[in-house]
Amino acid sequence: MILQVKQLKKYFSTGKSFFGKSRGTVHAVDDISFEVAAGETLGIVGESGCGKTTAARLLMRLIEPDEGEVLLEGRRIGGAQGGMSLTEARRRMQMVFQDSYASLNPRLPIEASIAFGPMVHGVAEREALKRSRDLLARVGLEPSRFAARYSHELSGGQRQRVNIARALALQPRVVILDEAVSALDKSVEAQVLNLLLDLKTEFGLTYLFISHDLNVVRYMSDRVMVMYLGKIAEIGPVESIYRETGHPYTRALLSAMPTLDPDRRTTEPPLAGDPPNPIDPPPGCRFRARCAYAESVCERIDPADAVGHSGHLIACHMSIPRSGHTRQGLAQ
């Protein structure tokens, strides 16, 4: 496995009241563990606020985890002995952010923006600029036309191509794509998605693809991880997730997907209510307040020990043998 995440946690304090009493703690990422094989694409989906972006920033160490560890190529990031330094980790793992405009320095031409990272990591300026122009050409931007332009002179799709080139400039093994195509119109989105697939094959990349668009995730991913309120609800091969959905939350997400088939139209909302408050969430299953199958065992015990077959893991009492749920074994 090229990437291993073990029991990762990140809590945010909401501060103290006027009388000095704590207002509570937001459980943004709460004890998640998963692995990513070299060369695969892991799609990460879930509602806004489920912890997708926080998890990505923890992997990149843009924010420090409270507990847990991240192993890249078998070495612990930030580990004291035999670990991988943050400098080395960020050379091997890069991230493409959602906001293509804010990600670029408006004072630098895009050629210099792409070359900046390699130069910081010790690459000679001449080599860094050559690499920058080569990558511009590879992402479909003619260097003679675009190298000297500034970010405000580009369209959203062109800026995102620049961000992809900049991420590849350090020749990473893993690329995290955080809603990288969500701000693009559909025609440009399709071009960028196909570009990402071509680059993955050409450079032997591993992707973590974060998106709210389930159709795009299905197109891009080999496996899918579904998050809900800081925890992993379900994880498995993409076709297994979409065809043999085990978790009620995943089923609700998929039923909300737009379709042109009149026989598959959704006439009733798949979920009622809003997610629970992430500040000091109650014990048990965090989805139980919105789940039609919730029982007393769901209130008492967190189904943290996801089970399944062929790598398809489901954090639901209906899928856990001898869990005490009356519908155990009838989740499908």
Low confidence ranges: none
Rg value: 21 Å
SS class: alpha/beta
H/E topology pattern: EEEHEEHEHHHHEHEHEEHHHEE
Proportion in helices: 25-40%
Number of helices: 11
Query: Care to count the β-strands?
Result: 12
The N- to C-terminal Cα distance equals 30 Å
Shape: globular
Question: How much is the average pLDDT?
Answer: 87
Main sheet?
Answer: 8 strands, mixed
Strand order of the largest sheet: 6-7-8-3-9-10-12-11
Question: Per DSSP, what share of the residues sits in E-state strands of 2 or more residues?
Answer: 15-25%
How do the helices and strands line up, and which of them pair or pack?
Layout: E1 3-13, E2 25-36, E3 41-45, H1 52-59, E4 67-72, E5 75-76, H2 86-92, E6 93-96, H3 110-120, H4 125-138, H5 143-146, H6 156-168, E7 174-178, H7 186-203, E8 206-210, H8 214-220, E9 223-228, E10 231-237, H9 238-243, H10 248-255, H11 296-300, E11 307-309, E12 312-314
Parallel strand pairs: 3-8, 3-9, 6-7, 7-8
Antiparallel strand pairs: 1-2, 1-4, 4-5, 9-10, 10-12, 11-12
Helix pairs in contact: 3-4, 3-6, 4-6, 6-7
